[in-house]
Write a structure and sequence with these properties.
Number of domains of chain B: 2
Number of strands of chain B: 9
Radius of gyration of chain B: 20 Å
Helix content of chain B: 25-40%
Largest sheet of chain A: 8 strands, parallel
Strand content of chain A: 15-25%
Strand order of the largest sheet of chain B: 7-6-5-8-9
Strand order of the largest sheet of chain A: 6-7-8-9-10-13-14-15
Structural class of chain A: alpha/beta
Distance between the termini of chain B: 17 Å
Radius of gyration of chain A: 21 Å
Order of helices and strands of chain A: EEEEEEHEHEHEHEHEHEHEHEHHEHHHEE
Largest interface: A-B, 43 and 46 residues
CATH superfamily of chain A: Metal-dependent hydrolases
CATH architecture of chain A: Alpha-Beta Barrel
CATH topology of the largest domain in chain B: Rossmann fold
CATH class of the largest domain in chain B: Alpha Beta
Structural class of chain B: alpha/beta
Number of helices of chain B: 10
CATH class of chain A: Alpha Beta
Number of strands of chain A: 17
Shape of chain A: globular
Distance between the termini of chain A: 17 Å
Order of helices and strands of chain B: HEHEHEHEHEHEEHEHEHH
CATH topology of chain A: TIM Barrel
Number of domains of chain A: 1
Shape of chain B: globular
Oligomer: heterodimer
Largest sheet of chain B: 5 strands, parallel
Number of helices of chain A: 13
Chain lengths: ~425, ~350
């Protein structure tokens, strides 16, 4: 029997709106007691003073990329899980666009064989991995995968992580999807309108001379999709919302009662295109980093609940892949180890958001978007908890990151906030 | 040589160029123009220094001009051409720059088909604490500072050959006509010409001149939403980037037109831009014919301008598209060959200013 007593921790549990200081007793990986002061505890319990630390429910990432299989130079499952753990994530849903793509049950089986048992990694408190099954073969947006078979194989839901251009295919996916009882996540982007855009079109893209993607590259397919959902009523999760107009469309669709949830990424909340003045290729994202008005609207969307969750969309890329011109670099940045510290420092420490509001966006809401019961700080529940020190400073560097890649604009910088070993 | 203070280590963009810096370039270029008129057209100013031309994008005119400028300053020159390089063998652009750094290069003149590469290399050189100066010789659609500075010199030296200076352009009307959206030359020219106090008029169809250009020279509000404040920005202190707009000494005057006539009305100078034929396949224009009919510069169209109007073009010219063929060769109107000549003097001035602090 192993017992831990965590004393004087700031508890954060969005499922019960808890934000208070108390003691927590964990016995054999299960929350045994949560009280103001726990006086009676097993004598062999390890006691830890957590004054100044946050003990929160585990974070849930809606979608991220694994390098393995196919791109192990970028990330292996081992380094991915280590990065997720170092960043406070206890659940991680992986996009299927690996090589080969996860578009049939053997891909799901393979993941399970790599990380053991029920998708839980070997060796204790490592994060639980979930797999999005591809909607289309090879995630290419051309032919439907065997969705029912994939559902039985245990995928968490269905997503390509890539836009599906064909309206007729999208319609049939929504229709067929009605019987799947699993989340369907779609990324709205018209690649024709987006062209080779590397930043969002606007005054700054004009000044920087970078190829730009107009906001309508997101909103035209988004409006069309919402129209389809109005008719077919299949629940859909809208991934990677990145424009002000996109937020507006979703807000009015939700007001009309459409069965949708939405997420944006942590990078789109923290940054806008003015940061791209540095031409740092780590700021080349897909969808591209937005204008200041887009960033402001996304923040508003988080505050009023239009945007349910913050996704990490962790996209590891090697030094060689990213050390090219901004617009020629493959899109994406890593984020699992950086999102919580930077979001906390920027929005919570500054008093703009409550700590619970951040925890809603990173823990309980993403779990609900995955149709899962969110982790909670309730006695009797598994101790799916993380310990976070908002004050601890560290330098973002290849040697301090668990990820095999270090494609982030914060590389080389000192940041505040770190998840501690529980 | 007039003594001058010059603190600029790299020349990447004209967005933050100050009036005294423009004047420094102009009067230094005037001195070198005099040198170039001598029988011995060479000075020992940068003797012993190494200038590398890293042209990742093919170029003949600009590269030749930079090379000649470097040689006239007695610098040793190295030329890099992507066709013969290791770029296709997995070497990154930073590896290439570091190779030339290891050879003892003092100034790298960089051209790349994508925006931002010269700044990326400059940031890397600074991170490595080297003293290498980076000159942007054209990056994607972003900027082409030496072209804008030679255009500025050509115009100012026409007005006052003895003492070319920025203030000569105050209240002059200058039209920039053509594919503004895809032109790094136009972007650099907008910064320099509006800094002079000239009235700058842009003319092109909406597909090549989006309305966004109206605010090009105005400082952007970081956060238009009043409820939010600047603390919404995280502590992302990326490598210092060039501020896009310091308080200009003169209010910048920039006007947009989707037809040619108002831009040309009483114009003192007309700058035309090269139109790439691929714009037709990108659905930006219906045809070259319709473009030339509406936006091509012809002798008749110039009648609306000031009687002494002059025409400039950064080259190479599509004869009969952006400018009629006969006009291009007419010395009464065309400054095109003066631009090429000025180019060497201006580039000598820039390399001299960047290099002279090093010895």
């Amino acid at each position: 029997m192993s017992s831990f007593l965590l004393q004087h921790a700031r508890l954060l549990d969005p499922t019960s709106e808890t934000d208070r200081t108390a003691d927590v007793l964990i016995v054999d990986g299960v929350i045994h007691a949560v009280e103001e002061t726990i006086a009676a505890f097993p004598s062999e319990a390890e006691v830890r003073d957590c004054t100044g630390l946050v003990l929160g429910t585990g974070l849930v990432d809606l979608y991220s990329h694994s390098g393995e299989p196919g791109f192990e130079d970028r990330e292996t499952l081992h380094s991915l899980m280590a990065a997720a753990q170092a960043g406070g994530f206890t659940r991680l849903a992986l996009l299927p666009d690996t090589h080969p793509a996860v578009d049939n049950p053997s891909g799901v089986e393979w993941l399970r064989s790599q990380v053991g048992g029920e998708g839980r990694g070997k060796g204790g408190s490592v994060p639980q991995l979930y797999q999005w099954g591809a909607l289309t073969l090879g995630a290419k947006g051309e032919h439907m995968t065997e969705l029912m078979e994939l559902a039985e194989a245990g995928v968490v839901g269905f997503a390509d992580g890539q836009p599906i251009a064909s309206g007729s295919l999208l319609r049939r996916l929504l229709e067929y999807g009605q019987m799947l009882q699993k989340p369907i996540a779609l990324y709205c982007c018209d690649r024709g309108l987006a062209g080779n855009g590397a930043v969002r079109e606007g005054l700054e893209s004009i000044r920087l001379g970078l190829p730009a993607s107009p906001a309508i590259a997101e909103t035209v397919p988004l409006a069309a999709l919402l129209e389809c959902i109005t008719e077919i009523k299949t629940p859909v999760h809208l991934m990677r919302v990145s424009t002000a107009r996109g937020v507006e469309l979703i807000r009015s669709a939700k007001a009309q009662g459409l069965p949708i949830t939405a997420s944006t990424t942590w990078m789109h909340l923290l940054l806008n295109v003015t940061a791209a003045k540095s031409y740092n290729p780590s700021l080349h994202l897909d969808p591209p980093i937005g204008n200041p008005t887009d960033q402001a609207a996304l923040l508003q969307g988080i505050q009023d609940g239009t945007i349910d969750a913050i996704a990490i969309d962790h996209t590891p890329l090697t030094y060689e892949e990213k050390t090219v011109a901004f617009s020629e670099s493959p899109a994406g940045a890593i984020g699992l180890e950086l999102a919580l510290p930077l979001l906390w420092q920027t929005f919570v420490a500054s008093g703009q958001w409550t700590a619970l509001s951040l925890w809603h966006s990173l823990s309980s809401n993403p779990a609900r978007c995955l149709h899962q019961t969110p982790p909670s700080l309730t006695p009797g529940q598994p101790a799916e908890l993380i310990l976070f020190d908002p004050q601890k400073s560290w330098k973002v560097a290849p040697e301090t990151l668990k990820s095999r890649s270090s494609n982030t604009p914060w590389l080389g910088q000192e940041i505040q906030g770190r998840v501690l070993q529980l | 040589m007039v003594t001058t203070t010059w603190n600029r280590h790299h020349v990447i963009s004209l967005a933050d160029f100050q009036p005294d810096e423009y004047d420094t370039v102009l009067h230094t270029a005037a001195s070198f123009r005099e040198v170039l008129s001598r029988r011995t057209k060479k000075v020992p100013a940068l003797q012993g220094q190494v200038i590398a031309n890293l042209f990742f994008e093919p170029s003949t005119r600009t590269r030749s001009s930079f090379e000649l400028a470097a040689k006239r300053l007695s610098a040793d020159t190295l030329n890099f051409a992507p066709g013969t390089s290791s770029l296709t063998k997995g070497e990154t652009i930073l590896d290439t720059a570091k190779t030339y750094l290891a050879m003892g290069t003092d100034i790298m003149v960089i051209r790349h088909r994508e925006a931002g590469v010269p700044l990326m290399i400059a940031n890397e050189m600074d991170r490595l604490e080297t003293r290498v100066g980076i000159f942007n010789a054209g990056d994607g659609l972003h900027e082409h500072p030496s072209q804008a500075l030679l255009d500025l010199f050509t115009i100012c030296a026409l007005i006052d050959p003895e003492k070319p200076r920025l203030s000569l352009l105050k209240d002059k009307k200058i039209a920039i006509v053509g594919d503004i959206l895809h032109s790094r030359v136009a972007r650099s020219n907008i910064w320099s010409l509006t800094a002079s106090g000239a009235e700058v008029h842009l003319a092109a169809p909406p597909t090549l001149l989006p309305k966004l250009f109206a605010d090009f020279v105005h400082p952007q509000q970081p956060f238009p939403d009043k409820k939010s404040n600047s603390s919404t920005f995280p502590s992302l202190s990326l490598t210092p980037s060039l501020p896009h707009s310091l308080t200009p000494s003169l209010p910048r005057k920039l006007f947009l037109h989707w037809s040619l006539e108002p831009a040309l009305q009483n114009a003192d100078f007309v700058m035309t831009l090269r139109l790439q034929k691929e714009r037709m396949t990108q659905h930006l224009l219906p045809s070259l014919r319709e473009y030339h009919q509406r936006y091509g510069i012809t002798r008749e169209r110039l009648e609306a301008c000031h009687p002494d109007v002059k025409v400039l073009h950064p080259g190479p010219v599509n004869r009969g598209v952006e400018i009629s063929s006969d006009l291009m060769d007419d010395p009464k109107f065309s400054l095109i060959s003066q631009q090429v000549t000025s180019g060497v003097a201006v580039r000598m001035a820039l390399l001299y200013l960047m290099g002279s602090g090093k010895s």
